[in-house]
Write a structure and sequence with these properties.
This protein is of the alpha/beta class. It has two domains: 6-162 and 321-420, FAD/NAD(P)-binding domain; 166-318, 3-Layer(bba) Sandwich (FAD/NAD(P)-binding domain). The chain is built from eleven helices and 23 strands. The longest helix has 23 residues, at 389-411. The protein is globular and about 70 Å long. The chain starts with 5 loop residues before the first strand and ends in a 10-residue tail after the last helix. The chain binds flavin-adenine dinucleotide. Flavin-adenine dinucleotide is lined by residues 9-15, 39-42, 48, 52-53, 55, 59-61, 98, 129-130, 158-160, 187, 211, 323, 325, 367-368, 387-389.
């Protein structure tokens, strides 16, 4: 295999979304022909099914969102007639189980693999964690755990994010002698009782998001009829998503039309608000229909620590942080990536930003953990990355494809004007 034109870190939904966008934009055959190398740290395709988006909860996006970006006449077109897509389509505009989405991603990976096998310059390297990414004169060199390095003009980071437990919460839980579990573990298809101390009945949940309310749901189902005491501790206000300003007003939501409305969709609190089952549970709690659940607003970490005393366990829905391998510049010196809230900052063009605001040419980011600036998606008051497979497959994927097209044109010898490549 000659040096590929493009390498991707991670074979999860971020990666498959980029491939789906590349298929829709008509550049996938060229990309595969000129060499695509996907590095995946897991050892096999089978090992990917239980991870990624495989959560035992309903989606907070509409079912149609997962199918809209797939080109019917493209390489991934057959997905639309496959079992996962048919089940998803039946749900119309409603939420669906994320396990169905995991199956759809699995089928996407299978089609991608079949296509990759037809191209001698392309391959997927399983069991290949990327440990460092170094800038070179002509692009980026990806180093793996075995000490091998491969260079390409384009590198796409799609390595997702890892569950985040804030230090203050760790200290508070340790100080109170209360076992601490991240919501990620609880929301997977699993036996939740095995994660909690035997007989745990007084459980604190920290957070105000879909994940926090999904945890409450799971615990309610699990201990139905038992003497359960759940306390939701939140340092941020709890918001609900509304499909328009009039609906938000009718629901009594307090919002600022200038900063809390998404210009792209008109939704209020598109990324900060609760959707579907989580929103309903919140409204039921407010209406007093769940006496086992108390909501407790905490001003700061000290108040959270105070509230943990006496709990049998604490489940933290405290979000995720990007899996970003260390970056180095052309002289092998550490290179700090820019941040967009808790996410890695990606410019409008899909390229990563350095901490000093400069562009890292040819280094692209997509998926959980990357926030694309200036996309116009999401309410301006939201500090973080617009997240959703529809966004990865849609506008984010399109931005990456535009960059990839430049690299492909350059590889083909076409004039690129003042491009870095
Ligand atoms: C609880 C929860 C609910 C969500 N609900 C929705 C929803 O309803 N709708 C929606 O559209 N989105 C949802 N998302 C967001 C998002 O779609 C999923 O998190 C999705 O799994 C993100 O895909 P990803 O590829 O970015 O990351 P991942 O799924 O984490 O995949 C990253 C891949 O990279 C690999 N990897 C990591 N590091 C390395 C490395 N150094 N070298 C090589 N490989 C590496 C991993 O093994 C993995 O296979 C949800 C997320 C969470 C956490």
């Amino acid at each position: 295999m000659t040096n590929p034109v493009c390498q991707i870190v991670g074979f999860g939904p971020g990666c498959t979304s980029f491939l789906i966008a590349a298929d829709r934009q008509g550049i996938l055959p060229e990309l595969l022909g000129r060499g695509l190398l996907i590095h995946e740290r897991e050892g096999s395709a089978e090992a990917l099914l239980p991870i990624g988006v495989n959560y035992d909860i309903p989606s907070n996006s509409d079912a149609a969102d997962f199918l809209d970006g797939i080109a019917p006449d493209g390489l991934f077109g057959p997905l639309l007639d496959g079992p996962a897509a048919r089940m998803i389509r039946m749900a119309g505009g409603r939420a669906i189980s994320l396990q169905l989405v995991a199956l759809l991603v699995e089928e996407t990976r299978r089609l991608a693999l079949e296509a990759i096998r037809r191209h001698p310059n392309s391959r997927v390297a399983y069991g290949s964690p990327v440990t460092r990414i170094g800038r070179t004169a002509g692009g980026w060199r990806l180093h793996d755990a075995q000490g091998r390095g491969v260079e390409s003009p384009l590198a796409v980071l799609a390595a997702g994010s890892a569950p985040h437990l804030p230090d203050g919460l760790r200290r508070a839980a340790a100080g109170a002698g209360v076992p601490l579990v991240h919501s990620d573990a609880v929301l997977r298809p699993c036996d939740v009782t095995a994660l909690l101390p035997a007989g745990a009945r007084s459980i604190a949940v920290v957070g105000a998001s879909h994940s926090a309310f999904s945890v409450l749901h799971k615990l309610l189902e699990l201990y139905a009829g038992g003497d359960l005491r759940l306390t939701l501790l939140h340092t941020q206000p709890i918001r609900r998503m509304h499909r328009g300003a009039a609906l938000a007003r009718a629901a009594g939501e307090r919002f600022d039309p200038a900063t809390d409305q998404c210009p792209a969709s008109g939704r209020i609190f598109r990324f900060q608000g609760l959707y579907t089952r989580s929103r309903l549970l919140y409204e039921q709690i407010l209406a007093g229909q769940h006496p086992a659940i108390a909501l407790r607003a905490c001003d700061d970490e000290a108040a959270v620590a105070d509230a943990l005393r006496g709990a049998d366990a604490v489940i933290a829905a405290t979000g995720y942080r990007p899996n970003l391998p260390p970056l180095t510049d052309v002289r092998d010196r550490p290179l700090a990536a820019g941040r967009n809230g808790s996410a890695v900052q990606v410019g409008r063009d899909g390229q990563l930003r350095a901490a000093d605001g400069g562009t890292l040419p040819g280094l692209l980011g997509i998926g959980l953990g990357f926030g694309r600036d200036g996309s116009g998606i999401g309410e301006p008051s939201y500090r973080g990355a617009p997240v959703g497979i529809n966004i990865f497959q849609g506008p984010d994927g399109d931005a990456l494809c535009a960059r990839a097209l430049s690299a492909l044109q350059h590889a083909a010898g076409a004039c690129l004007e003042k491009e870095y490549l």
